[in-house]
Automatic annotation (TrEMBL):
Pfam families: SMC_N (PF02463). NCBIfam families: recf. The gene is recF. It comes from the Bacteria. ATP binds at residues 30-37. InterPro entries: DNA-binding_RecF (IPR001238), DNA-binding_RecF_CS (IPR018078), P-loop_NTPase (IPR027417), RecF/RecN/SMC_N (IPR003395), RecF_2 (IPR042174). SUPFAM superfamilies: P-loop containing nucleoside triphosphate hydrolases (SSF52540). Residues 3-346 form the RecF/RecN/SMC N-terminal domain. Keywords: ATP-binding, Cytoplasm, DNA damage, DNA repair, DNA replication, DNA-binding, Nucleotide-binding, SOS response. One of its GO terms (molecular function) is single-stranded DNA binding. PROSITE patterns: RECF_1. This is DNA replication and repair protein RecF. The RecF protein is involved in DNA metabolism; it is required for DNA replication and normal SOS inducibility. RecF binds preferentially to single-stranded, linear DNA. It also seems to bind ATP.
């Protein structure tokens, strides 16, 4: 699958821009703050319906404008008809997503159809931040991998919101009494969904972890052992029973204190937490290995779905600035040996990019990015 072109209107620091891409390697070159990452983020919108950088869509509207449009033309195979995906948002309204001008009934139906993997300076946040970051990352990956998972996740989150709202209402208006039957009715539905989520995450990790470890060994020359495990109360205890046991505490805390939304993914190096034990370089390798494993596992899904030629889009943000020569060389080996399909990368220095890519075969297209404009070189 290839992104043939990208069109932007009032997106971040772009007023209007159109870019035509090569199916090979596309390089965005420009100074800090010129708008390179914003181009990757626009592609992220087309793939995942949201920004990789901000949870608030309105932040992506150009300052002073009242809407943005991001439009991309994708083709599955060479010569195949292009499909147009468009994401747009008007200030104060709901975001819309269309496929060949047809609006999706549910944004979720789009997820996984045009997968993309972003390797970004913020990847190590996965290691440093709290469990929510990690759950979000794996849930997003699993949703692209298996649509059934996303359906369960959406249903679980909706019920959890209802349950938390009820707990809050009980605390805010004690005089009106607490509708316990309603709580039990929610719990009856929430329990199997939570158990299902945790089981799916655990099964996915069994597949994902060996691929991840292999990528880490290749990136870091295999000096240390890394592991990745999933920690969930729901794999050992009955979630329905946990909800009942915790009812009083939940009422006091005004939120659901146990469940799949509390699970975590544990990152270890030589048996110790990566966050406190690993060096910065090792943390970077750990995070990149996660992303490369993500790329590989999403590719296997596309192959299984019969779209052999299809590979996720790979978005490499700022890799030359952040990574040492060995890691860059390893990444570029993967680019050179056709492991990846279409690649988009950003850099501040054209000469450095050209030098790094000197041995990479295939089509390379460069764009000069400057103050919200992008011109093909
Ligand atoms: N909604 C918006 N309206 C206008 N400008 C915006 C908006 N959102 C972000 N920007 C601008 O976009 C610029 C950042 O662009 P981007 O992150 O793409 O830079 P970059 O070229 O990747 O830089 P670096 O090399 O430092 O990573 C900033 O100058 C920021 O002010």
């Amino acid at each position: 699958m290839t992104l043939d072109s990208l069109q932007l209107l009032f997106f971040k620091n772009y007023e209007a821009a159109t870019l035509q891409f090569t199916p090979g390697l596309n390089c965005f070159i420009g100074d800090n703050g010129s708008g390179k990452t914003n181009l990757l983020d626009a592609i992220h919108y087309l793939s995942l319906t949201k920004s990789a950088l901000t949870p608030v869509d309105a932040n992506s509207i150009k300052q002073g404008a009242d809407f943005f449009v991001v439009k991309g033309k994708f083709s599955a195979d060479e010569g195949a008809d292009a499909e147009t995906i468009q994401v747009s948002l008007r200030q104060g309204q709901k975001k819309t997503l269309t496929h060949d001008k047809q609006p999706y009934e549910r944004m979720a139906d789009h997820i996984g159809r045009y997968p993309a993997v972003l390797v970004s300076p913020y990847d190590t946040d996965l290691i440093r931040e709290g469990s929510e970051e990690r759950r979000k990352y794996f849930d997003s990956l699993l949703s692209q991998f298996d649509h059934g998972f996303l359906d369960v996740l959406i249903a679980y989150n909706a019920l959890l919101r209802q349950r938390n709202a009820l707990l809050k209402l009980a605390a805010d208006r004690p005089a009106q009494g607490f509708d316990r039957d309603y709580l039990l009715a929610i719990d009856d539905q929430l329990a199997p969904l939570g158990t299902n989520l945790s089981q799916q995450r655990a099964t996915f990790l069994e597949r994902f972890t060996p691929i991840f470890r292999q990528h880490y060994q290749q990136l870091a020359d295999g000096r240390e052992e890394v592991s990745l495990t999933y920690k969930s109360q729901l794999l050992e205890a009955d979630f329905g029973q946990l909800l009942r046991q915790n009812e009083r505490r939940d009422l006091m805390m005004q939120r659901t204190t146990a469940g799949a939304h509390r699970d975590d993914f544990v990152f270890l190096m030589d048996g110790l937490p990566v966050k406190s034990y690993a060096s910065q370089g090792q943390q970077k390798s750990y995070a990149i290995a996660l992303k490369l494993a993500q790329f590989e596992i999403l590719t296997t899904r596309l192959v299984a779905a019969g779209t052999e030629a299809a590979k996720p889009l790979l978005l490499l943000d700022d890799i030359f600035d952040r990574l040492d020569d060995k890691r860059i060389a390893r990444l570029l080996e993967l680019v050179a040996d056709d492991t990846f399909g279409q690649v988009f990368l950003t850099d501040t220095n054209l000469a450095r990019t050209d030098q790094a890519l000197a041995n990479v075969r295939g089509d390379i297209r460069r764009f000069r990015v400057q103050g919200g404009t992008a011109e093909q070189l």
